[in-house]
Design brief:
The complex is a heterodimer of chains A (253) and B (307).
Chain A: H1 4-44, E1 46-49, E2 52-55, H2 56-87, H3 90-95, H4 101-129, H5 138-162, H6 168-182, H7 195-201, H8 205-217, H9 225-252
Antiparallel strand pairs in A: 1-2
Chain B: E1 6-15, E2 18-28, E3 33-37, H1 44-51, E4 59-64, E5 67-69, H2 73-77, E6 80-83, H3 95-105, H4 110-123, H5 139-150, E7 157-161, H6 169-184, E8 188-192, H7 196-202, E9 205-210, E10 213-218, H8 220-227, E11 231-236, E12 254-258, E13 261-266, H9 270-276, E14 283-288, H10 291-299
Parallel strand pairs in B: 3-8, 3-9, 6-7, 7-8
Antiparallel strand pairs in B: 1-2, 1-4, 4-5, 9-10, 11-13, 11-14, 12-13
Classes of the chains: A mainly alpha (253), B alpha/beta (307).
């Protein structure tokens, strides 16, 4: 439990800035949802998911909440973690105390996942208020979204370990996260994609997250949940392992 | 001799072709203040990092409190206090919060830390600044907060890496006074510094290192006696350098030239001072040999390229 005081440290900083940070974290995804969901939704009408007709806003909401989990976790584990690691040298200070690097990386991973969960919870609350879905299975979507946050925290920490400056993260966002946003069935069904692209999309972490969460919004059970959970777990465990190895290399030479 | 509180044996570290630390051994006795002096790049910080298990040595051995690094790194660090060269204070926290958060890293309970905070702030002369953030503090205050933070776990040994670099004389003297106080309380200190007066004032024993190697070790006064003549006469001004080619040279045991100044090292300065009276245009400074002379003698007067 040596990671816990490090987690608490981040929590204490965040508590001082929670309100502006919350506004930033949920305002943008909500604008997307309202503009696209209601605006485009009227043009698109209903969409067929696994043989069931759903309103476009439900389709979009269930996908975009996964995107929000991904973005919130990625931002925290990249920009914020990098500030603490490299700019403020907070990690160096902590390592002079009886807390080792592995504990710090674990704390940062769990912290980014927690922050992502917090954002997701706020957005879920607004979605409930808008009446987008009242599925009781949303209760289960909540821990699933925590898992999505963990997965993307682990992946982001790989790039944190490799970064020389904030600019480096632009590559990660423009080359990985943004294309993935469009290839994971958030804005339109994967069936629209050419078969080759679909084959790749099938193995992307965000696709698997969406395929777990969307049925829960529709009050259904995900058909291939075991496979999707397995894919996310591989990304999370593999990502964390690699992040740890690279961070150790960065610090211990 | 009592069991050393920290023992470093045959430590070595290379980065590629560059040797940073080479066969370095030293010990610190309980209650002792050991100063490590050496030019920039001599390996001081790397040595401290290896003592903390933050850099893995190529070979050699570090033990502290009878525990072995790196296997018992966490148990060792639980009894250490560290002030690193660069402040790592949390900019988002007040002074008191910095101490609270840091104490938690040692597994201390909040109540236990809160009880210690007033005395730690008082020790750092920061009681009035308890609610101020590091950004609002002067350089000296920040260093003292770093020192107070290093004391939160009531450590037995302090590792201080250039704790007074960049401070004005007032702030430096206050820091010295605090470190003296800690020594009186029986704490042991390992201190690196570029200030020879600091080393002489605080340290019981000095370790001079250069290019990662130990080149001298001993009490400050003993080292000066061992390596230097007791008196130095510095001569500078128009024509000072020409003195080197005059019979005056024979009046000193050793003559050194640095820039426009000639240094005469001698056991008896009287004949030299009398002879120098014939050169009224030159300025002279007669003083006892000090640690700075020793440092320059051992490590040379040249500016290092990497410095």
């Amino acid at each position: 439990m040596r990671w816990w005081p490090v987690f608490l440290r981040n929590l204490l900083v965040w508590k001082k800035l929670a309100i502006p940070s919350l506004v930033g974290n949920i305002a943008e995804p909500l604008m997307w949802l309202v503009a696209f969901g209601y605006g485009m939704g009227t043009l698109v009408g209903k969409i067929t998911v696994a043989g069931v007709q759903v309103p476009y806003i439900l389709f979009l909401a269930s996908g975009s909440i996964c995107m929000s989990a991904m973005n919130a976790a990625s931002f925290e584990a990249l920009y914020s973690a990098f500030s603490r690691m490299h700019v403020q040298k907070t990690w160096d200070g902590i390592m002079n105390a009886p807390v080792n690097l592995d504990n710090i990386v674990l704390a940062e991973m769990l912290w980014a996942a927690f922050k992502s969960l917090f954002t997701v919870t706020a957005i879920l609350g607004v979605m409930l208020a808008l009446g987008i879905s009242y599925s009781p299975k949303l209760l289960l979507a909540w821990p699933v979204l925590l898992g999505v946050g963990i997965t993307f925290s682990c992946l982001a920490l790989i790039f944190n370990a490799l970064a020389n400056g904030y600019d480096f993260f632009t590559y990660y966002f423009t080359l990985f996260l943004t294309p993935m946003m469009f290839l994971s069935g958030i804005f339109f069904p994967l069936e629209q994609l050419p078969p080759m692209v679909r084959a790749i999309a099938h193995w992307l972490p965000l696709t698997n997250a969406v395929e777990l969460v969307r049925p829960l919004f529709m009050d259904q059970w995900p058909a291939n949940w075991l496979q999707q959970v397995a894919v996310l777990t591989v990304y999370a465990v593999g990502g964390f392992w690699l992040a740890l190895a690279l961070t150790r290399k960065r610090f211990l030479g | 001799m009592t069991e050393p509180i920290l023992s470093v044996q045959h430590l070595a570290k290379h980065y590629g072709d560059a040797t940073v630390v080479s066969d370095l051994s030293f010990e610190i006795a309980p209650g002792e203040c050991l100063g490590v002096i050496g030019p920039n790049g001599a390996g001081k910080t790397t040595t401290i990092r290896m003592c903390l298990g933050l850099t893995v040595p190529d070979s050699g051995n570090v033990t502290a409190f009878g525990l072995q690094m790196p296997a018992d790194a966490l148990a060792i660090k639980a009894q250490l206090g560290v002030v690193s060269q660069i402040d790592t204070l949390d900019p988002d926290f007040s002074c008191a919060e910095n101490l609270l958060v840091y104490g938690r890293y040692f597994g201390m309970k909040d109540a236990q830390i809160r009880e210690r905070i007033p005395s730690l702030l008082e020790f750092a002369s920061l009681t009035a600044k308890a609610r101020a953030k590091p950004g609002e503090l002067s350089g000296g205050m920040k260093r003292r907060l770093s020192l107070a933070r290093a004391l939160v776990n009531n450590p037995r040994l302090l590792l201080l890496d250039e704790p007074t670099t960049g401070l004005d004389p007032q702030a430096r003297h206050l820091m010295w006074e605090r470190l003296q106080l800690l020594l009186q309380q029986g704490k042991s200190i390992l201190l690196t510094t570029h200030f020879m007066d600091e080393a002489e004032r605080l340290c019981h024993r000095l370790l001079v290192i250069d290019h990662g190697k130990k080149i001298a070790e001993g009490a400050p006064r003993d080292l000066i006696k061992q390596y230097l003549e007791p008196d130095v006469v510095e001569v500078f001004g128009n024509g000072a350098l020409a003195l080197v080619d005059t019979p005056l040279k024979a009046l000193a045991a050793r003559v050194e030239v640095s820039g426009e100044t000639v240094f005469f090292y001698t056991a008896d300065a009287k004949p030299l001072m009398t002879a120098l009276a014939a050169y009224p245009q030159l300025r002279t400074l007669h003083r006892p040999a000090n640690l700075e002379d020793l440092f320059l003698k051992l490590t040379g007067r040249q500016i290092r390229e990497d410095a």
